[in-house]
Amino acid sequence: HDGADTNAGTNNYNEFDINKILIDEEPDVPKRDPNAPYSLGPRISDWDEQRSRWLQENPNYPNFIGPNKPRVLLVTGSSPKPCENPVGDHYLLKSIKNKIDYCRLHGIEIFYNMALLDAEMAGFWAKLPLIRKLLLSHPEVEFLWWMDSDAMFTDMAFEVPWERYKDSNFVMHGWNEMVYDQKNWIGLNTGSFLLRNGQWALDILDAWAPMGPKGKIREEAGKVLTRELKNRPVFEADDQSAMVYLLATQREKWGDKVYLENSYYLHGYWGILVDRYEEMIENYHPGLGDHRWPLVTHFVGCKPCGKFGDYSVERCLKQMDRAFNFGDNQILQIYGFTHKSLASRRVKRVRNETNNPLEVKDELGLLHPAFKAVKVSSS
Amino acid sequence: MGQDNFAPQKRSSTGGGGGLPTIRNEAGAGGRNRGFPSMPRGRQMHKTFNNIKITILCGFVTILVLRGTIGVGNLGSSEAEAINQNLIEETNRILAEIRSDSDPTDPDESPETELNPNVTYTLGPKITDWDQQRKVWLSKNPEFPNFVNGKARILLVTGSPPNPCDNAIGDHYLLKAIKNKIDYCRLHGIEIVYNMAHLDKELAGYWAKLPLIRRLMLSHPELEWIWWMDSDAFFTDMVFEIPLYKYEKYNLVIHGYPDLLFEQKSWIALNTGSFLFRNCQWSLDLLDAWAPMGPKGPIREEAGRILTANLKGRPAFEADDQSALIYLLLSQKDQWMDKVFIENQYYLHGYWAGLVDRYEEMMEKYHPGLGDERWPFVTHFVGCKPCGSYGDYSVERCLRSMQRAFNFADNQVLKLYGFRHRGLLGPNIKRIRNETATPLEIVDLDIRRSVHGKTESKS
Q1: Is B431 helix (H, G, I), strand (E, B) or coil?
Q2: Which stretch is the leader sequence (chain A) (predicted)?
Q3: Fewest beta carbons less than 10 Å away: which of A48, A95, A150, A327?
Q4: Is the separation of the CB atoms in A333 and A363 below 8 Å?
Q5: The domain that contains B145 carries what CATH number?
């Protein structure tokens, strides 16, 4: 094959503007009539029956992969264009590696989305059409777990208590009083949540979507939300505020199937967690999932992919490194290694190689965890 | 591990990969070099020279980034400009720090001792009864079988360095590449390990995969196959499945050409960017036989000279894992070759340059599932090195091609959901199938069936 390419262009990546390349070669599709009411798709009212029938006809794709273990699809994603911040993509890469590790240990599949399914529902709203599409395309999925790209797993051993949610369809981190009584815009967090596949999910997505279409609708809706919710700043409607508003104003309709979880950090605000990692390592252990060892550390406001976040760049990036290493240590220890410190990319050995590798004690039980065991067949 | 794993197909340019890329491979380069009492002068000068190169590079990058960011016509107030400026400067400072190899814990670290060339390097204590150990373990742990739903358990292993790439584009394509692998593996029930740790300082760079593979084999007896794949390789046939039945009597499956190997002794006769190792004693033995040319420093350099002298077409540079494997299999042919399957019926590794321009033709004439030159299983961007600063090819050509490969593959996934990209370069998608109230009529989770069995609306 060829040696160095002699035709046009530099061989130096630092001199090249990638945006020259990322051009759509085909014309855009005609826009929807903005006066027509927005909808996520044709109304479906018998999804439970459709799904149930499909599951019966497809016994090879059960919605439960273990006695108390539903089939879960973790959904996350990022833009198909490079980040504006030059290290943003590096942090997205670390973040997805972190999720790959947790999900591998817990038997969860991942869908990494880089496509904007509906131009009107861009930004934080993009997850709605995506979630609907995935629920309808994957009847075998019992729970869809949405997780923001700026959220990382920091407890690799913690298994979500699925049994607790057997009567719920929507699990978010939050507090009942803050949502229903105070209507506080951060009473819950939509950066990491569980949604059960079913008619109820389709219905709540339909009820959630109307504040999303960008432009006038989203702007106006933003004003309503700022007025109605406690402490909400002025900006266009976001999916989280819209959900607080929806639940607070239609509690009777949805509330009984919504579980606002706060006994562990399904979403953990990074600001109150990252400085305590060393203390956690000293006093506690993985598997707790709560303030002692958070399941998820979520870097809300950092926006490493964009140019400007709400916090100092230095603090955000350094803390993201620490959170990554904190989680990564739990993986590395399976193989006998650990990071030299929470700030360091380097690893060191903490367990020597032996010629009896199978006798190694797996302290956290992550090497062959119970939640990954397959059903023992009779053959 | 996982350092510079995406350039094992060796650089065809001369001189050990030109200046800077080699610096990325050296964990110590650019860091503080305290406490090297017995370092030879020549090496000291070499290290100083490398340090200067890094400093210049970082400065250059900073200037470029500044140029790029400040260049935008910002007609705001001078105050806004000042804030903007501060933010840019702060970001760049952080970037430079993050990108540099300096490690906050370096000052306290004991000095690294160089490997004594008289002591043979080993990957670990010799194990001779792995097949037996594994068999016993499997029988005691029936809930972790090596076959699941009739399929052998495979682990796909890939990775990249723990530092950000020399430029942002590199990380962006690493991200796209892992998304691509996540998609393929989800569709085919394969687990992924993405490594970002240097498990063994001696075997850095492309060699890093050896200790990693060994470690994973020994920790996971339930794995039947370990599939190493470079970070610059993309799946481009989402339907094709590896025909494991062909390999029942083999322990290593690797893409290559027997005549290039045995007759020509070519240094590119095989490709170690995508290969499968069975989890067994034979593989441990091969890894042990493969490793000795790897330890960095004089061993790797001397080995490089041997390889260049013995393999056809190989430029002069330090030993790389691919050349070393070729040399090993040639010189110990009788010991190993009966268990090595040299595969070229499909593109377990597909060299990108001959493939990417034909994607449109493929879409017109063929369909996924073929895996060969009509619809390549894997398109591998050897020589592009987007994570470094310089590649062996024009940047524009590489990036354009990588984006096309990504979209070509992504279209096969999006199709399941009723979408496709608007061209092979662009980020945006369009609908090719309307939403319906009865979505399950189209859903077929076995992608092998869904491609052939269903009629799709044409765009």
Answers
A1: strand
A2: none
A3: A48
A4: yes
A5: 3.90.550.10
Q: Please report whether residue B442 resides in a domain.
A: no
pLDDT at A50: 96
Q: Is B218 on the interface with A (CB under 8 A)?
A: yes
pLDDT (mean) for B56-70:
52
**A72-77/A143-147 β-pairing:** parallel
Contacts of B441 in chain A (CB under 8 A): none
This prediction has a pTM of 0.87
Task: Note whether B440 contacts A104, CB cutoff 8 Å.
Answer: no
| B260 domain-assigned | yes
According to DSSP, residue A181 is labeled I
B353–chain A Cβ distance below 8 A for any pair: yes
Is residue B45 classed as helix, strand or coil in its secondary structure?
Answer: helix
Give the CB-side neighbour count of residue B56, counting CA atoms within 13 A: 10
Is 70 exceeded by the pLDDT of residue B77? no
Compare all CA atoms of chain B with the CA of A334 and give the residue at the minimum distance. Answer: B219
What ranges do the domains of chain A cover? Answer: 44-371
Residue B222 domain-assigned (yes or no): yes
**How many structural domains does chain B have?**
1
Which residues of chain A make contact with B390, given a CB cutoff of 8 A? 11-13
pLDDT in tens, A286-320: 999 999 999 999 999 998 898 777 788 889 999 99
* Rounded (5°) CA angle B54-B57-B60: 155
Is the per-residue pLDDT at B104 higher than 90? no
- Asked if residues B224 and B278 have their Cβ atoms less than 8 Å apart, the reply is yes
- Under DSSP, the state recorded for B114 is P
Residue of B nearest to A353 (CA): B124
User: Does B186 reside within a domain?
Assistant: yes
Instruction: Quote the distance between the C-alpha of residue A318 and its chain's center.
Output: 21
Interface pTM, i.e. ipTM: 0.95
Residue with the larger pLDDT of the pair B77 and B403: B403
Residues 94-133, chain B, touching A (beta carbon < 8 A): 94-95, 98-99, 103-105, 109, 123-128, 133
The verdict on domain A44-371 having CATH code 3.60.15.10 is no
pLDDT of residue B399: 95
Confidence of residue B60 (pLDDT cuts 50, 70, 90): low
Residues 6+ apart with CB under 8 A from B389: A12, A13, A14, B20, B21, B57, B166, B167
pLDDT band at B389; cut points 50, 70, 90? confident
What is the domain range of residue B349?
130-421
Selected residue of B84, B86, B396, B412 to mutate for chain A interface (largest A Cβ count, 10 A): B396
Put simply, the answer to whether B422 touches A24 (Cβ < 8 Å) is: yes
The interface residues of chain B toward chain A in range 386-445, judged by CB-CB distance below 8 A, are: 386, 388-397, 399-400, 403, 410, 414, 416-419, 422-431, 435-440, 443, 445
Question: What burial class does residue A146 get, using C-beta atoms within 10 Å of its C-beta: 0-12 exposed, 13-18 middle, 19+ buried?
Answer: buried
Element (DSSP H or E) covering residue A296:
strand A296-298
Nearest to B353 among A1, A58, A336 (CB): A1
Among residues A143, A23, A95, A110, the alpha carbon closest in space to that of B180 is found at A110
Q: Residue A87: list chain B partners with CB under 8 A.
A: 94-95, 98-99, 164, 168, 171
Helix pair angle (A199-208, A239-249), 10° resolution: 110
Average pLDDT over residues B228-232: 97
* Residue A320 contacts residue A256 (beta carbons within 8 Å): no
Q: Which of A23, A50, A317 lies at the smallest CB-CB distance from B94? A: A317
Task: Note which residues in 229-248 of chain B have CB less than 8 A from chain A.
Answer: none
| Residue-level pLDDT at B15 | 32
Torsion A365-A367-A371-A376 (CA) sign? negative
Query: Averaged over B104-112, what is the pLDDT?
Result: 46
Contact A139 B218 (CB under 8 A): no
Distance in Å from the first CA to the final CA of chain A? 50
